[in-house]
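As described in the Methods, two query proteins were run sequentially through the folding procedure within a single session, without resetting any intermediate state between them. The first query and its resulting structure tokens are shown here.
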Amino acid sequence: TYPFASPPALEVMAGRRPQAADTAFLAASGLPPGLRAVLAGCLSLEPAQRPSATELIVALEEALVQSARSS
């Protein structure tokens, strides 16, 4: 499922600000909660709310460790 109503690049090219992503699909994805939170942050329209590359690496490592513990 595509998280945006329409591709953000097309919205910008049409002169419109993209709508926020629908992150409801993440809840039904079966992904661990930590990874869902990371992905939801990556889908934010506001750059300041998205994780930096370093934050993303740390969050993904933590999600991986948590996933390994629960397996």
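Immediately afterward, the second query was submitted; its sequence and tokens are:
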Amino acid sequence: KSYLKLNFGNLFDETATHIEIKNMMGQIVYRKEYTGVISEYIEVGSFESGTYFISLHVNDKVMVKKLIIIH
């Protein structure tokens, strides 16, 4: 299995946030809500090889990073 590690520590205090992973077609393949510390492993072994975008949504701000999965 393949995992993606997310660790944002206490960066967001008690602010509600969510993370989305979208494929190149804009389909959401993963979404989870968080409050406070974000520290976990996401199993990405079932994702098809390709390019994805991880979006971290905090209040009205969004940070997006590219993720390339190759099996």
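The mean pLDDT is 87. We note this only descriptively and draw no conclusion about the first query from it.
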